[in-house]
Amino acid sequence: MEINLINQKPNHKATKARYYDMQELQDDLYARSKAGEIFGDLWSLIVSPNNLKLTYRTIKSNKGSHTPGTDGKTIEDIARLSDEDYLNLMISKLSWLQPKKVRRVEIPKPNGKKRPLGIPCIEDRLAQQAILQILEPIMEAKFSPYSYGFRPNKSAEHAINECYRLMQRSHCTYAIDFDIKSFFDEVNHRKLMRQLWTLGIRDTKLLQIIKQMLKAPIVLPSGQIEYPTKGTPQGGILSPLLANVVLNELDWWLSSQWKDFHRQLNKPPKPQYNKNGNRNLGSEYTAMRKTKLKEFYFVRYADDFKIFCKTRKEAVLLKHAITQWLSHRLKLQISPEKTKIVNLKKNYSEFLGFKLKLQPKSHKWVVNARMSDKTKANTRKQLSKQLKNIQKPKSGKVQALEIDLYNSMVMGIQNYYGIANNVTKDLAEIQRTTSIKFKNRFGKALKKEGQIDNIKLKERYGKSKQVRWINGKPVIPIGFYKSRNPMAQKAGACQYTPEGRGLLQKKIPKSGSDEVMHYLMTHPVRNASLEYNDNRISLYAGQHGKCGLTGQELVPGDIHCHHKLPRKLGGKDNYQNLILLTTPAHKLVHATNPDTISYLSSQLRLDGKQLKKLNKLRKTTKLEPIQLATVNETNQVGLIKDMNQLK
């Protein structure tokens, strides 16, 4: 399993769920699942209007939504539908799902091989997302805290932090690096259905739909059609969740062998608590160590997982037992060449692009974390390729944009690998080779002095003497970086509880009134496109509930959504072309009668900055600007009227 190491983005699912009143429903599903409830009717929740509208909002923000499937359609085709037509389409689609053929593409991997990706048609992607939004909170309540991949608000950084902790504080000196052979291609469909049933998903209609999705025909690059009998295709929206469902059984079996063994005893150890009120598991583990149990821990990220233990003898026994269990229970085989036992005091163990080892320091053993050798080589290759693009930009691109892309790649690499405590050595090595290549390719065009206009770049790299300039554009150095410690996930952090969200979300200004947001959601503009109505809600949040011209609070019945470039002139319903205005402000944008302009100006009393914005809106609608003198005159009339009223 490989993950995108560059430009990873934060999770914004909770914010999106608020727009369509889905947060409360998802919280309820999570709580009921945590309490062990069974779910017999989920289909009605999946096809509810709010869930389907949230589905569109989520998918349209995904770059992959613009990639066509075998039917040639993209999210743009869905965006043009009215709300009613879209809902009818999706309800019909989910009533008895017959998925269309999946388009297979092969994308190059950093190691030179190719990874097969399945691209479903856009309607099937929407159907999968609608199911995911209902299934995910139920499954999150069942998943182990020690799996970190493809889960909301968990990350590779959290997984690496856990590795640090086990190696240093739990004194685990051996690791078993497991590699499941072709995991995504080998998932047993019948077993997966049974696992979903065991986890409380008893809606037979939903289970049948998922089964149909897994068996969707695949169109290979050669044009041949394949009918899968096993596996879950990489590229499908539901695939990551289903992969975690499959391996969740492994997680809990591993936990039951040591970490959670005391829960199975008739007389578990009496719980003890420290001064902060947190449970002290140390005493419980001390008691367990007196038994014949093998002490070990595990960390899993998707299909990559590691076992940590204290002796080689234990590692050999564990490797054999886990290999047998995977084969017997999940019908999965490990790769003998890639699955190995590592003495962490002597050798590096690789995980998620890092390599980890223990080294002596001040009479104790501490973690030495670096970029893996393969990752380092691939990073050099990526940057060298982009360096060539800077020298000879691709068709349709300018050099400045290629430099921006290079800089974003550098920052992405630093952000991801910066949690390795000795990564500065690796970055310095990469810096030396890239510096030589830059010098060879650009010669005297590569300058040592210049300006950094971008504020973020200036804050981060302004003090570096390694910054270079090409035609006035700064090229940031990959070697200028100070490592940081990997952060652990906050205890209790969860997207599906109010308390857990409080630990995850930074305090941000409230984006308008919940009542007005609900009004916009429940009162779509009839016959308008799905995109238009969805963007009204986004705009309300983006404008913090205020008029985009006057700054007045927007209230139900006084909200107009204005096209900056009119539709008759080619304007579309995209977010950038829309702005929310009050009724008088919207009328003033379109007004041509001098008396109307005078009357509305006296009502609104625009200042110079607002007038400039108004005239910019009028210009795109091909209307004459309103002169400042006219506004001043009407403002004076309005002021005299106000003073007379006060008298």
From TrEMBL:
Residue ranges constituting the Reverse transcriptase domain according to the UniProt record = 88-356
CDD domains assigned to the protein according to its UniProt record, in alphabetical order: HNHc, RT_G2_intron
Q: Which UniProt keywords apply?
A: Nucleotidyltransferase, RNA-directed DNA polymerase, Transferase
A GO term, aspect molecular function: RNA-directed DNA polymerase activity
The answer to whether keyword Nucleotidyltransferase applies is yes
Superkingdom assignment: Bacteria
A Pfam family cross-referenced in the UniProt record is RVT_1
Q: Does the keyword Nucleotidyltransferase apply?
A: yes
Task: Output the PANTHER family linked to this UniProt entry.
Answer: NUCLEAR INTRON MATURASE 1, MITOCHONDRIAL-RELATED (PTHR34047), PROTEIN YKFC (PTHR34047:SF8)
What is the name attached to this protein's record? Group II intron reverse transcriptase/maturase
